[in-house]
Amino acid sequence: MSYKTCPRRYYYERIYPLPQLRYADFEVGNYLHNYFYSALKGEVEIIDANEIWEKIKGDSIPISAKDLEDNFQDMDDMISYYSSLSDKIILWREEKDYVEKIKNGIENSMKIAKVLDLNDFNVEKWMYAKIDDFLIYGRFDIMSENDIFELKTGGEREDYYLQLAFYALIFYLKNYIIPRGKLVYLQNGKIIDVKFNFNELSEIMEDVIKVLEGIKKENFPANKSENCKFCPYRFICDY
Ligand code: SF4
Questions:
Q1: Amino acid 1: pLDDT
Q2: Residue 1 within any structural domain of the chain
Q3: What is the mean pLDDT of residues 1-7?
Q4: Has residue 208 been placed in a domain?
Q5: Which whole-number Å values give the CA distances from 100 to 6, 105, 187, 192, 194, in the listed order?
Q6: Is the pLDDT of residue 30 over 90?
Q7: Would you say 46 and 103 are in contact if contact means Cβ atoms under 8 Å apart?
Q8: Is residue 163 part of a domain?
Q9: 29 C-beta neighbours (distance < 10 Å), count
Q10: Whose CA is nearest to atom 4 of ligand 1?
Q11: Which atom belonging to ligand 1 lies closest to the Cα atom of 227?
């Protein structure tokens, strides 16, 4: 998926890996995923969103993503700067917005878990399939028999359909069964049914093969998009 979003960034990430940073959106998303899994098992209680946010921040110092430096002399300079951020947590919005996001996510988790009423399911399960010499894989948020669920803790986005379709392809290649998909949005409480058919999965497969061939041929073109403004490699990218 990351090659499809931007082949050039996929290349940079492998050649110049950056130190792992703490991103508030990621940590809040992670927390809400786990909260939702517990809600499905009926194991949660209402928790104060402010307290959760404080716990997520921990001892890290909040820093706004807008204040991150983006003008580096070279790659070493950039890597050393990112290493210096190990005691920080990076925020893309105000702290109160994260509290609100946690609060919404908790409330909707309870409601959605009740509607789905799943008994037999697995969470965060890895599944692998082979196409030619390549292994494709994905971590499925929730799987219940032939249903696959993709959990989203932010707003609705069209490309989430593609992500789910990619997982549906892996599921099909592994089990020879076309799964039913569901996109679950914890912020607005929506559950969107996504149906796949054989022709759609064949198209996704062709797309995946093109991507795999691109990687094999070391073809990494830049894909200029709105993602560029969040890309740490933009200072060396000729997009
Ligand atoms: S700046 Fe944009 S085009 Fe360049 S690598 Fe990053 S995401 Fe890709």
A1: 63
A2: no
A3: 79
A4: yes
A5: 31, 8, 10, 23, 28
A6: yes
A7: no
A8: yes
A9: 18
A10: 237
A11: 7
